[in-house]
TrEMBL record:
Pfam families: Acyl-CoA_dh_1 (PF00441), Acyl-CoA_dh_M (PF02770), Acyl-CoA_dh_N (PF02771). PANTHER family: ACYL-COA DEHYDROGENASE FAMILY MEMBER 11, MEDIUM-CHAIN SPECIFIC ACYL-COA DEHYDROGENASE, MITOCHONDRIAL-RELATED. One of its GO terms (molecular function) is acyl-CoA dehydrogenase activity. This is Acyl-CoA dehydrogenase. Homodimer. Belongs to the acyl-CoA dehydrogenase family. Residues 133-234 form the Acyl-CoA oxidase/dehydrogenase middle domain.
Length: 412
């Protein structure tokens, strides 16, 4: 295991850090001001759009997509330090065409799409011309168990007809969101894990209705947003199915691994920024006649934050390395570990940073409240903590069930 940066990553890192220093950090307030001033909140934010051509010109575009001819050709391990830098500012990843859920959807199309799907949807997504959403979760069933998904995808001649209600379809608020990847049941009588399929639904298909946008702790996340969507007799050609009927779980496994670890990489960047803010504020704020930074409890929290962040970074790099070397399916243990650890760590570090800022910490002036919102929802998104822990615990126990199939400390 060697986690040092390759020359290629070192060069990209330097370029990315320079770009963030020059274009992202100084425009952070402008980004929020522009967003706040927009009469229609569901339109692209001008500064984000203005920076995209610059990022492209700087060769900082589509950095994800491991082993692909489309992206920068980086492995997951190589991408991790770059995603962390982008993650420091919640709006930055989009500037580099590296934001969720488009990254996961592009990987899905790249891996499981036909040449026609790639031409029609992947190409414009890679170019940043359109955006996408992934619609799995449903309001009426416990969706952390994806076998519960009820949306019906029924074959009717040369078409599939889709009926169902989804919610928390992130990204559907953006007017450029042109394609939905929808999960639903093609065969309710098949074996449990062969009932579900994934299908491509163009947003403008008759019968697709966005019912409302869901706020998160009061934030609307515009123009990206999280939609509740109704599918009523939505007809799409049979060719829109991904990989074939009953292959939905297989695709979900392939899609969610990279998506989950990308969230963790960005969460580490977010926590690093919160720690930096905590340190700066503690050095300048002087309650009871001395800098806050001189209080033992603050020094302890700063030290603890450093330990927690570094632990999570190592776990993330290890999981990324496993994905690169043994594949996403075998690396599911390591992915599950970091999916639990990183959001929990980020919540803790951001919470301490908020506390060090006093009341200022909960205003929008310092962005910590928004950062906390992101970290907290990551404990639910892409599988709640408990589901990952349940699977991790079972895999750990399996080592000690007969027949014995692993040694303590080994992955199963
Ligand atoms: C900001 C945000 C963005 C999202 N984006 C998307 C998106 O783009 N596309 C999409 O399809 N979905 C998205 N989601 C939805 C998310 O993936 C689901 O909310 C998640 O999978 C949990 O499903 P659920 O809400 O139905 O919870 P439920 O299945 O109802 O579970 C409720 C709670 O039960 C507990 N629980 C579940 N299983 C166990 C267990 N085995 N043991 C103990 N406790 C358990 C967990 O604490 C869980 O939070 C998003 C959610 C949020 C908040």
């Amino acid at each position: 295991m060697d986690f040092s940066h390759s020359p290629k990553v070192t060069a990209l890192r330097e370029r990315l850090l320079a770009f963030v220093d020059e274009h992202i950090a100084p425009n952070d307030h402008l980004h929020h001001a522009q967003q706040a001033a927009m009469t229609d909140r569901w339109q692209p934010v001008p500064i984000t759009e203005a920076l995209k051509p610059k990022a492209r010109e700087a060769g900082l575009w589509n950095l994800f997509l491991p082993e692909s001819g489309h992206g920068a050709g980086l492995t997951n391990l190589e991408y991790a330090p770059l995603a962390e830098i982008m993650g420091r500012y919640p709006w930055a990843s989009e500037v580099f065409n590296c934001s969720a859920p488009d990254t996961g959807n592009m990987e899905t199309l790249e891996r499981y799409g036909t040449e026609e799907h790639k031409e029609r949807w992947l190409k414009p997504l890679l170019a940043g011309e359109i955006r996408s959403c992934f619609a799995m979760t449903e309001p009426d069933v416990a969706s952390s168990d994806a076998t519960n998904i009820q949306t019906r995808i029924a074959r009717d001649g040369d078409h599939y007809v889709i009926n169902g209600r989804k919610w928390w379809s992130s990204g559907a608020g953006d007017p450029r969101c042109a394609i939905f990847i929808v999960m639903g049941k093609t065969d309710p009588d098949a074996e449990k894990h062969r009932q579900q399929s994934m299908i491509l639904v163009p947003r403008d298909t008759p019968g697709v209705t966005i019912k409302r946008m869901l706020p998160v702790f009061g934030f609307d996340d515009a123009p990206h947003g999280h939609a509740e969507i109704l599918f009523e007799d939505v007809r799409v050609p049979v060719g829109n199915i991904l990989l074939g009927e009953g292959r939905g779980f297989e695709i979900a496994q392939g899609r969610l691994g990279p998506g989950r670890i990308h969230h963790c990489m960005r969460a580490i960047g977010l926590a690093e920024r919160a720690l930096e803010m905590m340190c700066r504020r503690s050095l300048e704020r002087r309650p009871f006649g001395k800098p806050l930074a001189d209080q033992g409890v603050i020094i302890d929290r700063i030290a603890q934050s450093r330990i927690l962040i570094d632990q999570c970074r190592l776990l993330t790099l290890h999981a990324a390395w496993r994905m690169d070397t043994v594949g996403n399916k075998v690396a599911r243990t390591e992915i599950a570990e970091i999916k639990v650890a990183a959001p929990d760590m980020a919540c803790q570090v951001i919470d301490w940073a908020i506390q060090a800022h006093g009341a200022a910490g909960v205003t929008e002036d310092f962005e910590l409240a928004y950062m906390y919102k992101i970290a907290r929802t990551l404990r639910i998104v892409d599988g709640p903590d408990e589901v990952h822990k349940f699977q991790l615990g079972r895999m750990e126990l399996n080592k000690y069930r007969a027949p014995r199939n692993a040694r303590p400390g080994e992955s199963v």
